[in-house]
Amino acid sequence: MIAIDSSGLIDLLGASQMADAAEVVSRDALGRGPVAVCDVVVVEVRYLSFPGKQETMTHTLAKT
Predict the structure, then answer these.
(1) Are 45 and 13 in contact (CB under 8 A)?
(2) For residue 22, which phi and psi values (nearest 5 degrees)?
(3) d(C-alpha 43, C-alpha 21), whole Å
(4) pTM
């Protein structure tokens, strides 16, 4: 099993200069077997994907 980190997903999903490289690496990983994305990575990517909502998300996470 291969784990993908938040920086890889952010590059892949965003308009980063590294998006093409992130896609190649991600496809290679998927070709090798299962790829895992842990809960923390999902939260980090969601946090960065909603500009202006970070304070609300931080408050919600602090309560859990």
Answers:
(1) yes
(2) -65, -35
(3) 23
(4) 0.66
